Amino acid sequence: MSDPTQSDYLHGFSQTEQARLIKQARLAEATIFRDIDYGEARRLLEVGSGVGAQTEILLRRFPDLHATCVDLSEAQLAAAKENLGAMPWLDSRYLLQQADATDLPFEARDFDAAFLCWVLEHVPSPARVLSEVRRVLAPGSPVWITEVMNASFLLDPYSPNVWKYWMAFNDFQIEHGGDPFVGAKLGNLLLAGGFRDVRTDIKTFHLDNREPARRKTMIAFWEELLLSAADQLLAAGCVTTQIVDGMRREMHDVQSDPDAVFFYSFVQARATV
User: Fold this and answer.
1) Of 107, 134, 154, 239, which has the fewest beta carbons less than 10 angstroms from its beta carbon?
2) Are strands 261-272 and 142-147 parallel, antiparallel or unpaired?
3) Which pTM value belongs to this model?
4) How far apart are CA 260 and CA 245, in angstroms?
């Protein structure tokens, strides 16, 4: 994920976090890619490509694609080089490049598709990013954007430390120029940016007793996601060690609860240039 500065990025750039991003991509793949279609595209721009987790999925699902992957973080690009380099069947199908998403080093119409996933939540000016994406796309090109809507999160039984931590998590992101609710704003952003045929869909993880194994996996992963921000939140004084410890205890309790409910919705937008 994307273009924040090293100090502002909520999740950090540790090897543990980089491994979490790969796990996240695989866990959410079926939901994120259910409707995405790049069947007519050949030259795709991936903005905020991170460790290459989504890149691998894109190239696997769409064998005619070549992906140009941009990210601001050298650490993430180095991890992507290692991760994708371990897959020789992807050789020559991608290019990794350090770049600022608000000032892309490409010419107009260089690409015929774009992909952004969990990126705009981290940037101070989503409109500028989308303006640059539109500039480098050829007319008729599709863009798919998947983004967070953190107000949707629900965990049952009610877990007060999880809730306090989640509020601090979102507050930190807002205070550092991000937007944990940007998913709901994608329609307006795309229309204002001059995109056509704008459509948004709500994607939901709603896990209860119908899928107990998947529910347990998701709750365990969500604890990893929350903990990825713990050092940042503690250093900024946004949470206490008691809240972090309580959050971990409650996540474990809910994970083992026979009637637990996990609910989270995010937004996926499709538009054309």
Assistant:
1) 107
2) antiparallel
3) 0.92
4) 20
Length of the chain in residues, anyone?
273
Range 141-161 burial, b when 16+ CB lie within 10 A, else e: bbbbbbbbbbebbebeeebeb
Going from N- to C-terminal start, the domains of the chain cover: 15-272
Could you say which DSSP state residue 151 is in?
G
256: left (phi over 0), alpha (psi -120 to 50) or beta: alpha
50-73 confidence digits (pLDDT tens): 999 999 999 999 999 999 999 999
Cα separation, 18 vs 78, in Å, equals: 11
Distance, CA of 116 to chain centre:
8
Question: Given phi > 0 = left and psi -120 to 50 = alpha, else beta, which region is 56?
Answer: alpha
* Fold classification of 15-272 (topology level): Rossmann fold (3.40.50)
Please, what's the b/e burial string for 13-42 (b: 16 or more CB within 10 A of its CB; e: otherwise)?
Answer: beeebbebbbebbebbbeebbeebebeebe
pLDDT tens-place string over residues 177-211: 999 999 999 999 999 999 999 999 999 999 999 99
